[in-house]
From TrEMBL:
Coiled-coil ranges from the UniProt annotation: none
Keywords: DNA damage, DNA recombination, DNA repair, Metal-binding, Zinc, Zinc-finger
Source organism per UniProt: Candidatus Gottesmanbacteria bacterium GW2011_GWA2_43_14
Matching HAMAP family: RecR
Stretch forming the signal peptide: none
InterPro entries: DNA_Rcmb_RecR, Rcmb_RecR, Rcmb_RecR_Znf, TOPRIM_dom, TOPRIM_RecR
Protein name (Swiss-Prot/TrEMBL): Recombination protein RecR
ZnF (C4-type) residues: 58-73
Amino acid sequence: MSVLPKSIVRLIEHFQRLPGIGPKTASRLSLYLLNMPQPHLEALASSIAGLKKSIVFCSVCFNIAEADPCPVCSDTQRIQELICVVESPVDVFQVEKTGKYKGSYHVLHGAINPLNNIGPDEIRINELLQRIKKGGIKEIILATNPNMEGEATSMYIKREIYRLQHANGQKENLNGLLVTRLAHGLPVGADLEYADEVTLSRAFEGRREY
Ligand SMILES: [Zn+2]
């Protein structure tokens, strides 16, 4: 039988469902919250409770935002002909921190991972291809993570774009569309999420045709 009050045990269980949090950290966080002033605790609780209500997916780039289209897609100062393809909204946040990228995004919400039964249809690849098909896009920057899943995803997208470019009856001429891949400076096996701004800036500058 647990000596801890039920409410604490429940909270610990909730924390343990979060990624990267084991039983020890979950207990520590729960006891930490117990010592927090009540107004802070209520503010935290209401942020969590309201999270899904205030967040929508942008119907253009599929990033999370409070409005649809998102601020990037509706910004006329951004180069909408340039699409940076990333795995997660956190990656958009990381790229934005460099302050150097002025194009738009496409968030896949994952990467192809056959071991976990995640195929191309489980992530937002078709939506990206639809965007490309509409025409007017000059460059696709593949910024998926430099690991096996990220590489497989980029390769798949590249192949599908090639197929689009060589499809019969393609109304819009997509032959001028450039496909590049971030390469330089990013350590292999590491996630974009953990790259610092300088490394990520260099990776953008050193992108090559894919
Ligand atoms: Zn958007």
